[in-house]
Write a structure and sequence with these properties.
about 55% strand; mainly beta
């Protein structure tokens, strides 16, 4: 009796139609700039000496889903890193996505404005500095985003560290948010 049950299970298993899924990951040239887990944090200080902002990763999701108009067997990666800013308790997030042809890195700031930072493949080569000093630290392979939020502003994202410096220019002054302390988990 056990043998018949076992053979029946094998026949049933062999007759099942297993779906073969194709997984399409975010391009590593983009994902290398965002390497953090829940609990990671960054402490920034204003170069004018007037403010401190701490940013903490509150959640991280990594999913593979089909495109809305595509095959259920073609799964595309989306990574979302949500962060809380202290003391304001406002939320920002980083989103890495993959679609049919491209991978993108975008940032939604604490005001809810979404900024496309990088696309791969890109029509123009992104500017990557070999090194950058921010605060007391030297960072290697730093992505430079010019005209971030406003003309003249520059955002610096270091490989494996996320934002390490943000220069803000206005008509009256230029100041920076400088990464002071970081804990990447």
């Amino acid at each position: 009796m056990k043998l018949k049950s076992f053979l029946g299970g094998l026949i049933l298993l062999a007759s099942c139609n297993f779906q073969h899924n194709n997984y399409h990951a975010v391009d590593p040239s983009i994902s290398q700039f965002v390497a953090a887990n829940t609990g990671s944090w960054w402490k920034f200080r204003d170069s004018l000496g007037t403010a401190v902002d701490t940013v903490r990763v509150t959640s991280l999701s990594n999913t593979f889903t089909p495109l809305s108009n595509g095959s259920d067997n073609e799964l595309y990666q989306t990574i979302v890193m949500q962060m809380e800013h202290i003391p304001s308790l406002k939320i920002s997030k980083v989103v890495l996505t993959r679609d049919l042809e491209t991978s993108t890195l975008s940032y939604t700031d604490t005001s809810g404005n979404t900024h496309l930072l990088l696309t791969e493949p890109s029509t123009s080569e992104p500017t990557i500095l070999d090194s950058l000093v921010s605060g007391k630290h030297l960072y290697k392979k730093v992505l430079t985003i010019n005209n971030f939020q406003q003309p003249g502003n520059t955002l610096y994202i270091a490989k494996g560290y996320w934002i390490v410096k943000y220069i803000i220019k206005s008509e009256q002054t230029t100041h920076s948010w400088i990464l002071d302390t970081v804990m990447i988990k």
